[in-house]
Amino acid sequence: MMKACRYVLVRGLTASVSLLAAISIARPARAQWSTAYHQFYTQASHNWAFRRNYPAADRLFNAFDYGHAILYETLYTKPNAPTSRLEQQEYDFITQRLLVEPPRLPLEESVIEVEYAKLVPEAKEMFEWAHILHRQVYDVWADERLSAASKDREVHRLLAHYLARRKAAFSTRPKDMQLMEGQPYSLAFRRRYPKFNGLIWAYHWLQVGLYEPLVTAKSSEGRRAGVDAAVARFRAMLADPPRSMPAIMPMTAAVAPEFSRRYPEIAIIFDNLHAMHDVISDVLADSTVPTSRKRAEILRAAARYRDDTSSVTTVAEWRDMAEEMGVDHMGGRAVTADQPPSTMWTSELVERRLRDANIEARPLPPTGRHIFMSIPARSYELADGDELQVFLYPDSASRTRDTEKLDKQRVAPPNMMIKWRAQPTLVMDGNLAAIIITNDEARRQRVRDALSPLGKPNDR
Amino acid sequence: MPHPAASRVTHVRRHGRRRIALAVALALSAARTLAAQTDFYNTSVGRPLRIEDAVPVEYRAVELNLAPVRLDVMAQDTRFWSLHPEATIGFLPRTQLQLVLPLAYVDAPATSAHGVAGLDVSVLHALNMETSIPALAVAGGISLPIGPLGGTATYGTVKGMVTRTLPWARFHANAQLTAGPSTSSDDPTTSVANDSRDLSRWLAGLAVDRTFAFHSLLVTAESFAEQPISSGAAVAWSAGAGLRYQLDPRWTMDAGIGRRFTGDNRAWYVTLGSAYSLGLR
Fold this sequence. Notes:
- The complex is a heterodimer of chains A (about 450) and B (about 280).
- Chain A is mostly helical and about 450 residues long.
- Helix content of chain A is about 55%, strand content about 5%.
- Chain A is globular and about 65 Å long.
- The N and C termini of chain A lie far apart (about 90 Å).
- By secondary structure, chain B is mainly beta.
- Chain B has a single domain (about 5-280), classed as monomeric porin ompg (Porin), CATH 2.40.160.40.
- Chain B has helices at about 5-25, 190-195, and strands spanning about 60-65, 70-75, 80-85, 85-90, 95-100, 105, 110-115, 120-125, 135-145, 155-165, 170-180, 200-210, 215-230, 235-245, 250-260, 265-280.
- A twelve-stranded antiparallel β-barrel of chain B has the order 1-4-5-8-9-10-11-12-13-14-15-16.
- The longest helix of chain B has 22 residues, at about 5-25.
- Chain B starts with a helix and ends with a strand.
- At the A-B interface, helix 1, helix 5, helix 6 and helix 7 of A face strand 10, strand 12 and strand 16 of B.
């Protein structure tokens, strides 16, 4: 009896090991040795505060995990599946079931995107690491025990912790659109799957849009109302897809301007994260990229989004790009319930913003209006003879009519040569247009920051 | 000639201890895959089965198994209870350190004993992250003879682990060897003590698990063979099944049941435990 048992045991183990070995050496042509690794979130008193205080919004993120994961897995493992697989089958499941009753816990994505996770664990880890930063920043701002100063300290500590993993961290330098939309594979996904692409952008809108009410509201009630409003806006995006969805990638500087002003590096990280999401979708969806090259293409894109040199643009250009692309096309600006978006720029507000930023600005006597602007400027002399020209319109539509005719780089009509005394920079927000005329880059940035979009707590 | 009850105790202990020793060797194997929020996905020795995945706890994670309990029910009304308090720390990328301090209680018709049953220290290092190449990990540990049931000798264990993930299931293979003196069944006291440390001269086995992602639930089954550390003991074959369930982002619970079908110490066993995850500051 014992011999028989031993025989069965040995044969069984041998067969099992053989099976495992066979499974293990499958697809040797794409064998890759990866030393990526997982890292735990930073231990802190604010851990899971967002989950406790905003459970409905938090659970949505668990559903988002599935959407991203099933997207990549389907694109990678079923490249010839009909479009309806994602556009109808999965979309309907996500929007009619998963987002209606989201999972109570974060999902183990590698169970859903099994083959994709094995294809590029390095890219997956970049996403996870950035998502941890996402969640921990929510936690900081959801923790009502912390003062604003403490929150800022915590967020900067989290940022430093995040950036310490150079092989997993996205760059804090903004990247130009060439990286996302100028590659051979670019746009493949959104053209074939406009509805699912809109869903992903709606996810990304909410992920950054939630920060704005958290950062700008004056009270816990205000934060709660703002978060509820953001979630409601997100759900409204699903009402009439894809028309009701974002038409372009939501950029943090436009959707959450005050958050972006407060933490520009983090906002840039999230934009790079979301852009790389789109890039991977394109690589996986593009049939001209053979399966054998998909890992290499994704790793190449990942390296570009990590480094501080590839396709880098300036923070100013990044803000301009966000503004020029039109926040309305991104799903709209996130606002808090106690800060309605009807706040207008006034000369008093401009001057208060400058004072708050410790910028010396002496009003200059009125001069004639520029031939390319419909209203005269209110001008201020800055240090070293630099100048700030402010145009306050009755509404944002009037302002847009003027500024849309300008070449934003030269701050002049395209067919007109204007000789500025120094490098001009155009700032636009709502009913405000402003031209900063200086060759001092630091000063330019300080003024830009001072004129960051409306929504700050004391703007009214 | 050992007392019959002592022999039974030896069996039971070895069974439970084996888990501990494994836990020792594997110790760190509290392998969890992703973020701690999905700790249920990462199996480790004894949580709930003996065969574990080839993934360590995350870097900078701390996992505390404060009171995982195991009961072995053996022949002739002999029961072996054990608690395996464990601490696992991801102290380097893909590398964990695990400390286990087993506490045991033997309840036999003619014999009972309780106390610390050794101290196990182990390190597990994942060589890679799974791609088209399976996840591979190695572990090494020592089991120290500490406590009234801790035996008399120190043992060293080396172990290899492989994990392969398919869309419908994960497969794990473990193999381990232990160096140290064989216990003699002629000396009941020594034998009982060493057996209580759950040591095997060698062990090899396979496990398969299936994850229900939306429910944060993992169901798993295993089968393994081992050569007991006692001299002259027959190879024993065991099979078991269990589950891991995520209660909340920090808490995970596990439960398992198994049977040693062959060998000198056949027994049923059940396990129940929970783990709490936190991170280093």
